[in-house]
Design goal:
With 124 residues, the chain is mainly alpha-helical. The protein contains six helices and three strands; from the N terminus they run βααααααββ. The protein has one domain. Strand 2 and strand 3 form a beta hairpin.
Length: 124
């Protein structure tokens, strides 16, 4: 399978996504859902990082997104729009599921599909 090179800008944005996910994971390492839904400072910190994930995803080139079709870019970007523009409608259960399920899965997909040291999509 041929490897597709990523632009420096796309690679930087994908690294930003990974860094934001890893920060959320550090924030929530020993946090229960019950604590999360009552800890507004933690929620604010998580929302900020999820917004970074969505913003970085929205800035990826069409080629980068096309080369990683298994990733739901539209959903990621839509989540950011909700957090920024419809902030009063954010469902804490949805945010918790994003923290516990969606972000770890996105991290796995990125690490499985991209060789960050070479800047190429590998589709492992």
């Amino acid at each position: 399978m041929p490897k597709q090179s990523l632009s420096d800008a796309d690679l930087a944005r994908l690294r930003d996504i990974l860094a934001a996910i890893e920060t959320v994971q550090r924030y929530c390492v020993r946090v229960s859902e019950a604590r999360f839904v009552t800890d507004y400072v933690l929620q604010d910190a998580v929302v900020r990082r999820v917004m970074i994930v969505g913003e970085a995803a929205s800035k990826l080139s069409a080629e980068a997104k096309t080369s990683l079709p298994e990733i739901e870019w539209t959903s990621i970007i839509s989540m950011r729009h909700v957090l920024v523009h419809d902030y009063s409608d954010v469902d804490q259960g949805t945010l918790w599921r994003t923290v516990r399920h969606d972000l770890p899965e996105l991290k796995k997909q990125l690490l499985r599909c991209i060789d960050f040291s070479k800047g190429v999509v590998t589709k492992r």
